[in-house]
Amino acid sequence: MEEPPLDVLIVGAGPTGLALAAQLRAYGVRFRIIDRHLDRARESRALAVQPRTLEALAPFGVSEELVRRGNPAVRLSMHLPGRTVRVPLFDLGVADTPYPFLLFLSQAETESVLGRYLTDGGTPLERGVELVGTVGAGEQVACRLRRGDGAEERVTTRYVAGCDGARSTVRQQAGIGFEGHSYPQTFLLADLEADGLEPGAAHACMTDAGMVFFFPLVSPASWRMLAIRPPDTPDTAGTAVSLAMLQSLVDRYVDLPLRLRDPVWMTDFKIHNRGAGRYRSGPFFLAGDAAHIHSPAGAQGMNTGIQDALNLGWKLAMVCRGTAPAALLDTYDAERAPVGRDVLRFTDLAFKIATSAHPLIRSARTRLAPRVAPLVLRPAPLRAAVFRRLGQLAVDYRRSPLTAAGSRPPRHGPRAGDRLPDTPPGLQALTARPGHHLLLCGPPGSWNGSPEPAAPARGRAGLLHVHRLGTNAPWAGTVHCLVRPDGYIAYLATGTDLTGLVAHLDRWLPPREPERPGP
């Protein structure tokens, strides 16, 4: 018998595709995930997991394993000629996230944890399978897949999710442009051991001649080394990188007696800054590097991709299950494309400041910044703001068509469109179950004796979970809040009148059947 059509074909089994698969599985969606590579990444590539990513992955039970495997470094050591400046990063006492740190962890480990989660749950990762062509057919897409032995297969699916990297086949099939530029510098990258480095910190070695960075890992080696190829050496990107070459560069740039050894892998590469013109074209969606590539400044890339996937996943799931209107899928581009553009701008600016050869910028980078940074970052509120920006805790969807506030939103606390904070601790875990969550907050008796709390759940069994928080909530007073499946606030208002909330739900999560009258 012919196989029934898929709901979603995920192309690409890197961190973005794996995260999307995890969420689709949580909602019981019929999907497949394929990747043209025969094995997952074994080298480190991306090297850090941001706090918001750990929050977003926590519902799948994988975040604690990621933390166990990683290194939550808490300080930056800036090495200048003749002295070292230490800058505290995350000693902030940030109380609204369970993960108040940047987790240094190899991408290989991140993929291993997510892949094991899926395969242990019975989801096969189909490696050595490539998407080679698509043909639209009304509400379905016919996809031609090719295996490593040349055998081909044709499958039909409602939607195709392109998580297949910078050279995305899905993006090409969808006819979506990928505009931007390449940087002239060539970068050297290695995972290795480095004798002479203080453990438990990130190290930036800064001189007029150039810069070298060392980031702490646990596996596959203790350190990730990143440097720019010296401008007075031949630019031979793509050729073999040797340990002797890296040691020579360290001896030239680093005012420390370091000895490099035992490299796990070494490479050189070019960096690009490019973004997709849109994240959706009909049944095709783009996420991760297929939608945006940029410099590694701020460790934004993999994390942005995973959060693309988790934004898209619940929307695809609800539309495929018939519990939400098709218009819900239009909000993916509306919400994530601005985030992607912001990351492109931020990383481009940071990269240019870090690599500029202009005498004034170079002097500011190597002389002024190391002296000013400890003073500027000394106030905890400023460090907290930087932490939230880099940790992607500040991403919001306040302007999204999915976001609404009642006539009297709370004056203090998180706003509609913000992520739900983990305040009080455990609130994010309470709302981790698949579906929407309605939080009813207020003093004792606020919601007693009123029929309204039951109204939003009518016709939405299993789709809307109601929680009474009392006064142990992020807001003071009587407040009701609707939390989306990805942990962002969709609707927020004060008081016990749920008329506006029900209207919002009727638009985006309509009741599946009318309420039957009682006997």
> Number of DSSP helices?
12
**What overall geometry do the principal axes of the alpha carbons give?**
globular
Task: Give the rounded overall mean pLDDT.
Answer: 88
CATH class of the domain at 6-71 and 106-179 and 276-355: Alpha Beta
Classified in CATH, the superfamily of the domain at 6-71 and 106-179 and 276-355 is FAD/NAD(P)-binding domain
Give the uncertain stretches in residue-range form: 515-519
- Helical proportion? 25-40%
Number of strands: 23
Rg to the nearest angstrom? Answer: 24 Å
Alpha-carbon distance between the termini?
45 Å
> What is CATH's topology name of the domain at 6-71 and 106-179 and 276-355?
FAD/NAD(P)-binding domain
The largest β sheet comes out as: 8 strands, mixed
Roughly what fraction of the amino acids lie in strands?
25-35%
Cofactor: FAD
InterPro entries: FAD-bd, FAD/NAD-bd_sf, RIFMO-like
Keywords: FAD, Flavoprotein, Monooxygenase, Oxidoreductase
GO molecular function: FAD binding; oxidoreductase activity, acting on paired donors, with incorporation or reduction of molecular oxygen, NAD(P)H as one donor, and incorporation of one atom of oxygen
What does this structure look like?
This protein starts with 5 loop residues before the first strand and ends in an 11-residue tail after the last helix. It is globular, with a radius of gyration of 24 Å. The chain has helices at residues 15-26, 51-57, 63-69, 107-120, 169-174, 243-253, 301-320, 330-355, 359-376, 380-390, 427-430, 499-508; strands spanning 6-11, 31-35, 48-49, 75-80, 83-88, 103-104, 126-127, 129-137, 140-147, 152-162, 178-195, 202-206, 211-216, 223-228, 259-276, 280-281, 284-286, 292-293, 404-405, 436-441, 464-470, 479-483, 489-494. It is an alpha/beta fold and 519 residues long. Strands 1, 2, 7, 8, 9, 10, 16 and 17 form an eight-stranded mixed β-sheet that branches. The protein has an eight-stranded mixed β-sheet with strand order 5-4-12-13-14-11-15-18. The protein contains twelve helices and 23 strands. Helix 1 runs parallel beside helix 4 (107-120). Among the domains are: 6-71 and 106-179 and 276-355, FAD/NAD(P)-binding domain, CATH 3.50.50.60; 404-508, Glutaredoxin, CATH 3.40.30. InterPro entries: FAD-bd, FAD/NAD-bd_sf, RIFMO-like. Pfam families: FAD_binding_3, Rng_hyd_C. Keywords: FAD, Flavoprotein, Monooxygenase, Oxidoreductase.
